[in-house]
Design brief:
It contains 10 helices and 13 strands. By secondary structure, it is of the alpha/beta class.
C-alpha cells in the first residue's frame, strides 16, 4: 500500500529555529522524504545542512540536480535554484524569481502536486509575506494533505496567515504538535489521485527552465495594467479564490501584497535616477520635460494601494 511518502516544507523568517525543532523531534524511523525550501541568501555560504543533521536523527543535505529522493532524509533547496520534484528525482530549476525569491516555496509545492499530490503533505511554517500560499492550494487541488502552522504560534505569522486566506487546510497546529502530526500523516495511506490542473503544469515548467510565452500566460490569467518591477514587462493577473498573483511573460511572479512593495521600490529607484540626472544636468545638459516631471510627481503622490487598483471601466 502506498503511503504519504513526500513531505514538502516551506518557511522564511523564523524558519531556521522551526526547522531545527522539527529535525530534532521527527522520529528516527520517519518514512517520508522531506523537501525543504527556506529563503536563503545567495551571498553567504550556508551550513544549514550540517546544523539540521546534527540537530536530530535524519541526515540533511543540499539537493543536487538529478538525485533520487529517499525516505528518512532531508533535502534542502540550495541558494539560487528552485527545488522541484520530478517523479522520484530532484530537479534544480533556473526559472525566474517568484515572490522575490529563488528558491521559492510555491514552485516546490506545485511540482510535488503535479508528480505525486495524493502521496504528499505540504507544510507552511513561519515567515513574512505570502510565498507558499498558492503552492499549498495547488497541493490541495491535487489531493495532497495541507498543514499550516498556527499564526499565533509562529515567530512571523504573515506567511501562515496568507496561506489561511488562500485555503482551508486539513490541519492548523502549533509547532510543538507538528512532529507527531507529521509522523502520523506519513504512515497514512495515500489519498485519491486527482487530475492536475493545466496551470500547475505550466507554472512548474516556468520554474524549471525559465521559458514562457504570452500565449502561455494568457492561459493562466488576464493581462493587467501593471508592469513587472524586474523587467518592465506586462503583468498577467492570476486570481485563485481569495489570493491574487501577478506574473510577467519572462516568468517573474508576485503575490499581490509583495507586488505592491516591489512597485514602490521600483518607483523609488526611478525617482532616485531622475534626481541624479537632474543634479548632473548642468554638466550634461539633461533636463527632463515638463510632462516627465509632472508624471513623476503624480506617481509619487499616488497612494500605494492605487497601484494595484483595477483600471476604471470604460464609459
Amino acid at each position: 500500500m502506498t503511503h504519504r511518502d513526500i513531505l514538502a516544507i516551506g518557511t522564511s523568517a523564523g524558519g531556521f529555529e522551526a526547522l531545527r525543532f522539527l529535525a530534532r523531534e521527527l522520529p528516527t524511523d520517519f518514512p517520508a522524504a522531506v523537501l525543504v525550501v527556506i529563503h536563503l541568501s545567495a551571498e553567504f555560504q550556508s551550513g544549514l545542512d550540517r546544523i539540521l543533521s546534527e540537530s536530530g536523527p535524519l541526515p540533511a543535505r543540499f539537493a543536487k540536480d538529478g538525485e533520487s529522493v529517499c525516505g528518512g532524509h532531508l533535502f534542502i533547496a540550495p541558494p539560487k535554484s528552485h527545488l522541484l520534484l520530478d517523479g522520484d528525482c530532484l530537479r534544480l530549476g533556473n526559472g525566474p524569481h517568484e515572490n522575490n525569491a529563488r528558491p521559492a516555496i510555491d514552485p516546490l509545492f506545485r511540482s510535488v502536486a503535479m508528480c505525486c499530490g495524493s502521496r504528499a503533505v505540504g507544510v507552511v511554517l513561519t515567515g513574512t509575506l505570502g510565498d507558499g500560499a498558492s503552492g499549498l492550494e495547488a497541493l490541495r487541488q491535487c489531493g495532497g494533505m495541507t498543514v499550516v502552522q498556527d499564526p499565533k504560534d509562529a515567530a512571523y505569522p504573515e506567511m501562515p496567515q496568507t496561506a489561511l486566506r488562500a485555503l482551508t487546510p486539513n490541519h492548523v497546529v502549533g509547532l510543538h504538535e507538528m512532529p507527531a502530526l507529521l509522523a502520523r500523516l506519513a504512515h497514512e495511506p495515500a489519498g485519491v489521485s486527482l487530475p492536475v490542473p493545466p496551470g500547475i503544469v505550466l507554472e512548474t515548467e516556468i520554474a524549471r527552465n525559465g521559458r514562457s510565452t504570452m500565449s502561455t500566460l494568457d492561459r493562466l490569467g488576464h493581462r493587467s495594467v501593471l508592469t513587472c518591477p524586474d523587467c518592465n514587462g506586462v503583468m498577467w493577473e492570476i486570481n485563485e479564490g481569495h489570493v491574487t498573483r501577478y506574473r510577467c511573460h519572462v516568468g517573474h511572479a508576485y503575490m499581490a501584497d509583495l507586488m505592491s512593495l516591489a512597485l514602490d521600490e521600483s518607483l523609488r529607484r526611478a525617482l532616485a535616477s531622475l534626481i541624479r540626472r537632474r543634479a548632473l544636468s548642468p554638466i550634461t545638459g539633461f533636463r527632463p520635460s515638463g510632462k516627465a516631471r509632472a508624471a513623476s510627481v503624480s506617481r509619487l503622490r499616488s497612494p500605494r494601494s492605487s497601484l494595484l487598483s483595477p483600471a476604471p471601466a470604460a464609459p
